[in-house]
Amino acid sequence: MRFVSAAIIFFIILTVSSGLNDEVSVWIPEHRCLAKTNSGKCNSYRCMQKCSGKPLGRGRCRGNYCICTYYCHQPPK
Q: Is-contact 16 57, C-beta < 8 A?
């Protein structure tokens, strides 16, 4: 009985942890770059699409600006 309950718990942990692998990423603060573009009025969907083309790119609107944060191989100077 203990073996069965331990196997079930192990299976649950394995299932949950396998789903987390897609969402985990490591940011090295020195390699974080920012890009800011002004497009009149910022559209959240377009901003996210534009920034997702860069490595680990994320975009969000701040006022009229689309701000992309992404991983750059060489740290900015």
A: no
Confidence tier at 18 by pLDDT (50, 70, 90): very low
| Beta partners for residue 67, in sequence order | 36, 60
Phi-psi region of 24 (alpha: psi -120 to 50; beta: other; left: phi over 0): beta
What stretches of the chain adopt beta strand conformation (E)?
Answer: 32-38, 58-62, 65-71
Q: Is the separation of the CB atoms in 33 and 72 below 8 Å? A: yes
Q: Report d(CA 25, CA 70) in Å as an integer.
A: 12
pLDDT higher than 70, residue 14: no
Short-list 55, 59, 50, 58, CA closest to 73: 55
Contact criterion met (CB below 8 Å) for 36 and 66: yes
